[in-house]
Structures are given as C-alpha cells and as structure tokens.
Amino acid sequence: MRICSVDVGTTGTKAIIFDEQGRILSMAFREYPVICPKVGWAEQDAGKVFDIILELMGSCICNAGIRELDAVSLSVQGDAVIPVDEDGKALCSAILGMDNRSAPQAGWCDQEMGAYHIFSKTGMRPHPINSATKIMWIQQERKEIARQTYKYLTYDGYLVRRMGADGYVTDMTMASRSMLCGHLSGDWDRQMLSVCGIDRSVLPDIIPSGSVAGRMLRQTARQLCLRNQPFLVIGGHDQTCAGVGAGAVVPGVAVDSHGTAEVLSAGFRIPILSEEMCDGFYPCYHHGVKGQYFTFALNHCGGIVFRWYRDCFSEEEKRRAGAEGRKAYDVMVEEMEDTPSGLLFLPHLNGSGTPYCDISARGSILGLTLSTTRAEVGKALLEGLSYEIRLNAERFRDMGIRADDIRCVGGGASHDRTVQLKADVLGQPVSTMKNREAASLGAAILALNGLGYFKTVEEGVSCLVKTDRVYYPQKEKADIYSARFGLYRQTYHALEPIYRYWNKGMVRSL
Amino acid sequence: MKNVLIGIDVGTSGTKAAVVDTDGKILGEALVGYPVICLENGWAEQDALLWEQAVYQASGQAVKQAAVLAGVRPGDVAGICVSGLFAGSGVPLDETMKPLRNAIIWMDRRAVLQCRNTRTLVSDEELFSITGNRNDAYFGFNKILWIRDNESDIWEKIRWLLSSNGYIVYCLTGEISMDHTAAANIGGIYDLDKGRWSYPTMERLGIRESLFPEHLMEPQDIAGYLTEEAAMKMGLVPGIPVCAGCTDCLASMISAGVFEENVQTAVIGTSINWGILHRDFPTDSRLVTMPHAIAPKILKYTYGGISSAGVLCKWFLEQVAPFTRRPGTVVETDFQILEKEAGRIPPGSGGLLVLPYFMGERSPIWDSGARGVFCGLSMKHTRAHMYRAVLEALSYACRQIRETSPVFALSGDTCIVSGGACCSGLWMQILADVTGLRIITTDDSVQAPAGDALIAGVSIGVIPSYEEGRKWARHKEVYEPDWDRFWIYDKYYKEYLRLYDATSGIVHSLADM
Predict the structure, then answer these.
(1) How far is CA A295 from CA A103, A253, A279, A438, A467, in A?
(2) Cα(A412)–Cα(B272) distance, integer angstroms
(3) Average pLDDT value over all residues in chain A
(4) Domain for residue B278, yes or no?
(5) Range of the domain at B208
(6) How many contacts does A have with B, using Cβ atoms within 8 A?
(7) A60 close to A27: Cβ distance less than 8 angstroms
(8) Are residues A318 and A413 in the same domain?
C-alpha cells in the first residue's frame, strides 16, 4: 500500500510517501510565510498552501516512481480558522493558532461562564488559540465575511474539500480542540454554541480520526500523474498524529517533539479535567486513537530561540560551518563543554509556555562572569529548554499523566549531545526514534487503520513504530541538574513582577 | 628648555610615563605593559620587579621622545612624581629590600576568610569610625593578613611593606617612604580623622607596626633624590627630586582639574570610581574614602566603586558578539561599529535590563557573590540592544551610588569624567540622560602622569599652586541631559534596583552549587 502523508505545519509542509511497512519512498518539503499584519496577529494564505501541497505531492509521487496511491492522509496544524463559501473557497486568510486577536472574546467567555466551567465541559479553557473565539471575532469584527461564510473550517476540512471530498468535515481531534465540543458527547455542544453565538450550521460534521472523508477529484489525481483516485483521510491534529507516530498510544509513553516550538505530549484513557490541568493551560482533547484522550505541554520558544541565538551571536560558527560544509548548529553544539554550565537561561523570549503561559515573560540569563564563554551561554540555553520540559513533565506526573518513557522526535533529536543533555536534565532515560517524522508516520498509520490494513491503531504502532537509541542520564550531571532545577523554577517567579512591569495591561495567553 | 617634569603612573595594565612642561603640555610619553598574574580564580597579583623595569623603560622612552620632539635635555628635568595602583597588599620586602613575593593587587578577592576574622577583632562600626572605611576583602589589610595566615615563612621575613608608588620611589631614590593616600588605602590601620597610622588597630589585627615607615608624607613632599644608578637607567641625571606620590586615581583627578570640595567626578575605565571631594568625616560605609592628594589632612575623596565597566564591554565584544568582518577596507573599529548600532536603539533597549556584577560588586551592594544578569530578552533583541543595555546598566549603577549616599547631596549638577570611557559619545550621553547630570569629559590620552607632573611642579615650586594647574585640565566635550530620556530611564532604573533584590538569592545559591 502507498500512503501519502501530508504534514501541514505553520511554517511549512512536508509530504512523505510511505509503504505499509512504514518505509519512506519519497519526501518533499517547502516553507511558506506567516503573515503578521499587526502585532499579535498571524495569518496565512490557505489557497497558496493548498497549491504548494499539490506541488509537493506531485513531486513525491514522481520521485517515488508510482502511478497509484491508496490514500492521502492529513496531519495539520491546530486551530487555524478558515471561513469558506459554498464552493469551499477561502473568503479570507486563515487566522492561525498563534494569532492573539481574539483575546477579548476569550476574556468574555471567561467572564460569562468561568474558565474552569468551560474547561470541565469542553476540555479547553477560553483562550485566543481556540477556533471558537476566532469564529466569534470574525462574526463580531468582520460581519461582511461572516455573512458570506458557509462553513468555518480548519486546514483538515479545508484541504480535503479542495481535494475532492463532497461534504464539509473535521475530525474528532480537531473538533475537540475548538472549545465548542462536549468532551463526553464528542459532538458540538449546544450550550457552548449559544454562549458563543455560533450557529451549528456553520460548523462541519465530525468524523473519527483516520476515517475516509472522500476521494480525490479525478482531475486533481490526473494532474498528479495518478491513475486512481486515492482516498482522502484525516489523520487529525499534528500533535496527536505525532503521538501515534512515536508510539504514545499506551499510558506512560510521552513524546518530546522539538522543532520551532517544543512540545511534550501524552495520551490517557480517562479524561482529566482537574483544576490543575486548567490552571496549567493543558488541553484535554481526543486522541487519534479511539477512546483515548490527549494533552500536551507547549514551549513555543523552542528551536526558534536557539535560531535567534545562532543568528545574533554565532557568526563565527556559521562561517566555519559554511567553510566545512556542515550545519552551524552542529559546530555550536560541539564547541560546548561537556560539564553543566554555571548559568541559568530562561528561554521565554516570546513569553513562557505551559504551565504559566505568561506572554509578558521574557528571556533572562543569570550567573554571568567575565570568564563566561559564548558556548557556555549556548549550552545554558539548551539546558533551559530542557528545564522547561522537566517543569511540565513534573506537572504531568502530579496530574496523574505518566511520562516514564519519553521519546524525542523533530530536529532537536538529531544531535547525540543534545539528546544526552535532555536525559541528564530530565533525570530519566529518553529515546530517539528510527523514524523522526512522527506526525507523518502517525498519519500514515491512522490511514492504514482507516483503510482496514491494520485492525487497530495500536497494531499499526507495534508494527511500524521503532525506537532507535536510549540515552540514560549520567548520574553526576543529573544530580547537579536536579539541584539546579529548583533554582530554575524559583527564577521565573522571582522575575515575574519585573516582566509584568513593562507589559502592564497585557493578558496572559499563549 | 628648562624645568620639565616627569609624571609616572604604575597602573594595572602597564606603566605610563610623561614628560610635561610647566604649562601642562605633554612633550613625550610612553607606555610599557605587563600581565596580571591569576593563579586561581579570583586571585590577582603583579611582580614588583616588572613594575620597576617598566618605570625605567617608559620614562627612558618618554625622555627620548621629548628630546627628539621638543629638544628636552636630561638636565632640564626638575622633578619626578610617581603614582600607583592601590588597595593591594603592597610589596613585601626583606632586609635587603628584595620583594619576597608578588604584590596582591586591588582586583584580588581571596581574603574572604581574613575579612571574616578581622570583623570579630574590630567591629564594623569601630573600624569605620577610625578609618572611614568598611571591612572588606578588597582592602589591603586583609590581603596582608592573608599572607600572614598562609605563607608564614614569608611573613616572618617581611621587613617593609611598601605601596606600589612607595616601592618605585625607593627604587629611584633609595629612600623608604609612605604617603597618606597609600596608607589610607590599606584600610583598617589608618586613622582618617587624625591623618596617621592607627597603631592600636594594627596591634588588635595582628599587623606589625614596624612594617611601615612611621612618618607619613604628603604626596608633594620630596621623598628623596634620584640615585646615580636609577638616573642611568632612565637616561637622566642624578639628584632630581622625587615626590612621595599618591594613588593613581587621585593623580587622574588632579589632571582633570578636580581640586575643590563638592566637585563630583568619575573615573571610568576598566572599573568605575564615582566620587566627590569633601571635608567631613564620611558617614556612608558603602563608599570608600581616602585623603585627597592635595591637602590630605583636609580634603577627602569619597567614592563608590563599580567593579566591572570597560572590562565588561570588552567581554561582550570578544565573547558574546565577535564580528565577522567582511573583506575590504574597514575604517572603523569593532567598538565603533557596535556603538553605532547601539546608538540607533531607543532608550531602555527594548525592555532589556542588565546587572553588571560580572566580577561581584563593590559599592553600594558589596557582594562578591553577585553575578551578571541579562533580563527581558525577546526575539527582536540583537547584540546592539544587549550592548546598549550594558551601557545603560553601568549608568544606573552610577546613579545608584549617587542617590543612595548622602555625601553627594551637596554636589552640583555636573560630573567631570576621566578615563577610557570618555571616547564613547554614546556612553557619555547615556550617563548624562540616566543621571540627569551635565557630563564633562576630559582628554583621556595622558591622565595620571600629567597629575603626577603637576604635583612635582608644585612641590619644587616651578608651578606656583594647584590653582595654576586648572589650566592643565583639558576638558573635551560636554553632554547635557535630555529630560525626556531621563524620565524613560527613570522607570527602568527602578526596575534595575528591583532586579538585584529579585535575583541575588538565586545567584548566590547557583554559585554555591
């Protein structure tokens, strides 16, 4: 069987063709821009993303040398709202998940119903990241567009419709992230809809993750040099897809996905809707595996902070790497001493992620001396990113979510020394995966299950998901990091009033 | 030409000598460098024999240059004065006047245990009431006691402990001398009010009184006359009067024309001394006080010391943000490029705050465990923001000293700045805007040696008075404060104060781990 997984991220899309044994036949990637018309706003031309995806699929099919494809399976960025007309054409740019404009709407929901009440009902607390508040914003601030809107979609529903699906659908993982879906009923919640003033008719139907939404248009298939019309499958939210692709379908397995942002995610079998979950801004939504729930911790300042650091301060390493034909990242990591740095580097350069979600937080470095080197500051930054994960892993445990077996995927898993550092800082073993493209692999497994090749998702996982290497914490270093971790945690609270000062009046949000 | 003067300054990075005429014109100058010896983290020593060599070389070169450029002959030199670095252990000498070990210098922070011990012998209040200074590992007496506690064989052999300038005066004249400013800088054993040694405290602290010459000299007192041997090494004639000299920051101030009380002054180089001249006994133990080189029994110089200033800029440029130069002709230095970039950043550096305590800090927090902090970084920050934030932090540190100590209450709205930082227009404007003071910079090429020369001139009478020396002061630029910017900085300054309180506990624990 041939599955083309399309992983639609915020900054780029990756298309990969897998066979039924999880082998990669071909791969293509392309970046596209995020448009920021105002501070805190983030948009994207969904039509352009669709065009790029078609091109990527075309080149994947061509490079794999195949003429038939069983399915296209989508793994998509969360919570990007796209209002479409009756033909499925986007009426304006997609409002991306990271967009903050609907903060007033989120605040209003909070006042009207109480954050915890909404969370206990839907598994999501009011926040501008949610689709619901963005739809409210469009209805209140862009009345003309709202009047023309036939459906409010996210990338999954938008893309399958453009590729040929008849109706308007979204999958369970995406729907349950909207703040409009009852976590028990698994359907749009009438009370939430009426509070938010959203009509049921403008929302798509909800289908299970990994199920078939339709078939590709003959014309589109031909354009891609295909002889058949592949099934269109929605794998769902990229985080749940990555959960499947890294094997987080049994309790205890957690995924550390280190890319532009860094995410620690885990699944569980009974919904957890405690106040601690709500306070820590952890969502509780449906997993791609039937009957399981999913949550994640987000540090949106992940690899992007290291990139900032590289671009600001590592011209020399960049030049050297260029001359040697290597990546600057590798040169920078190699320059770092093996011993723990003497510094604390809080990496909240764009606000902190869970569990504080404080957009007024900033980055700080403590403990500098005249003998501090550039490489030591870089190492402290990597340590800080791992402390953030540890902070969240500990919260997970406190809330009853096990994270004993942490699996690293994404770009951050590509360097031995950074993965070892993560094991040392977390004080627990972490492993890397044979296939680091977890979201794409997860989407493929969900599609193979949806098409009946695997009887269950778990079966697909046990066949296709393999760990590569286990990194154990080195005791001496782990002890130092454990002791420092207490200080690290203290530091954010110590600096909070100072951060607050020059951001007075700004809301807490992601 | 008749009656030229030689000023010599033994500094931390090198010795500078200048040949100066009676109008303050520099006729020749030379600098000879030497290293700071760091055997362990936090230690800093220097070899007095290297100082001595550097003095001969630098003065020899300066005299030669003056001969070529101005036709000065060795016989024209009428007087010599030497200043030197301070607050160290001094040079421990044996019976034969040979140095027994390196001098422990002002930067050194090792005498922490000695500081703790001496506190139990003489209370902080009592010590301050006698010396006008606090008890800290920074001061020379604790460093002297470190030698006693750790190197007993050397301790037993010490016959004299001379200051850096005192040792050089001995080399030049064969006379043993100690001036008031150097004695006060040992801290702990100098009675500031009476202007003499405090023998009772010496006894209580366990320092032999015979280590120091009993008679203390004023900087302009003639300590002796150039010996034949020294004259040969310097290319001069024997018999030239040599003054007792003083500590180097005072010589710098004299060259900047600072002679009167309530004149506020800052020496900004590797570190910062933010100070003022006054008459009364000091009241704030967070500051350092020494007699002024002019009228040491009447005028006092009190200052707050900021440990790392220029050295921090250097660290930033070399360690954090080295430039990759593009090929082609470059006319600007790295500092100039960085300064230009930082000049385009608005005040406040985009909400970025720095604590400049990269080597711990002296005034006003006296915390050797303090460390550097960057707070408030965001993705839009560049190295230019960070550099500007460093300059702003150093200016906040000056404002903090000025505002927290009553001694500055009578100072005017002006500060005379000398030292290497004078060549940074950006830094000086930020300093003016943060403090709300008019900043007057001085020519930074020859400072302490020119002050030394003035002392020598007054001493031997070729210059009628220090008043005359006011003409020597070469003021360069005036930076007026901008009040809009002052109020912006004012907000950040309050957060700067909070930042230390918020982080000091964490930073101490971090260092102890």
Answers:
(1) 22, 12, 14, 16, 22
(2) 43
(3) 93
(4) no
(5) 87-162+180-216
(6) 117
(7) yes
(8) yes
Distance from CA of B493 to the nearest CA of A (A): 12
Same domain, A302 and A220: no
Contact present, A253 and A409 (Cβ < 8 Å)? no
* Residue A456 within any structural domain of the chain: no
- Kindly report the nearest CA distance between residue A510 and chain B, in angstroms: 15
| Interchain contact A370–B (C-beta under 8 A) | yes
CB distance B219 to B140 below 8 Å: no
Q: Are residues A387 and A427 in the same domain?
A: yes
For the stretch A483-502, pLDDT in tens is 999 999 999 999 998 887 65
ipTM of the modeled complex: 0.88
pLDDT for A509 = 31
**Which of B372, B376, B509 comes nearest A369 by C-beta?**
B372
Nearest CB to A349: which of B379, B499, B509?
A: B379
Is the pTM above the cut of 0.80? yes
The residues, any chain, with a CB within 8 Å of residue A170's CB and separated by 6 or more, are A153, A154, A156, A157, A204, A205, A206, A207, A234
Neighbours of B148 (CB within 10 A): 17
CB-based contact, B511 to chain A, within 8 Å: yes
**Which residues of A fall within a CB distance of 8 Å from B511?**
342, 367
Using a CB-CB distance cutoff of 8 angstroms, which residues of chain A are in contact with residue B311?
A: 370
Domain closes at, from A245, A273, A299: A245
Instruction: Give the H or E element holding residue B362.
Output: none
pLDDT per position as a tens digit, B32-56? 999 989 888 778 999 999 999 999 9
Tokens of A399: 């809330």
Specify if B327 maps to a domain.
yes
For tokens 């004259």, what's the residue?
B231
In this structure, of A365-369, B363-367, B431-435, the range with the lowest mean pLDDT score is B363-367
Is the sign of the CA dihedral A489, A495, A499, A501 positive or negative?
positive
Same domain for B126 and B65, yes or no, is: no
Contact A444, A5 (CB under 8 A): yes
Same domain, A227 and A292: no
pLDDT tier at B325, thresholds 50, 70, 90:
low
Count: domains in chain B = 3
Domain identity same for B404 and B348: yes
Q: How confident is the model at residue B324 (pLDDT cuts 50, 70, 90)?
A: low
In this structure, which amino acid lies at residue A41? W
> Is B173 a domain residue?
no
| Domain endpoint, select from A217, A245, A273 | A245
Q: Is residue A462 within 8 angstroms of chain B, CB to CB? A: no
- The backbone torsions φ and ψ at residue B424, rounded to the nearest 5 degrees and listed phi first, read -100, 100
* A197 & A325 share domain: no
Residue A137 CB contacts under 8 Å (≥ 6 apart), including other chains: A95, A101, A102, A105
A130 close contact with B: CB closer than 8 A: no
Residue A19, domain extent: 2-245
Mark yes or no for CB contact A494/B382 under 8 Å: no
Phi and psi at B18, nearest 5°, equal -140, 140
Domain co-membership, B80 together with B123: no
Question: How many helices and strands in chain A, by DSSP H and E?
Answer: 19, 21
* A59 vs B: CB within 8 A: no
- Is the domain of B92 the same as that of B81? no
Could you report the per-residue pLDDT of B497-508, keeping only the tens digit for each? 999 999 999 999
Token pair 């530091």: residue: A491
Q: What is the CATH number of the domain that holds B137?
A: 3.30.420.40
Flag if B373 and A364 touch (Cβ within 8 Å).
yes
Q: Could you tell me the CATH number of the domain that includes residue A350?
A: 3.30.420.40
Q: What residues of chain A, 328 to 357, have a C-beta less than 8 Å from chain B?
A: 342-344, 349-350
3-state secondary structure of A424: helix
Q: How far is B49 from chain A (nearest CA, A)?
A: 28
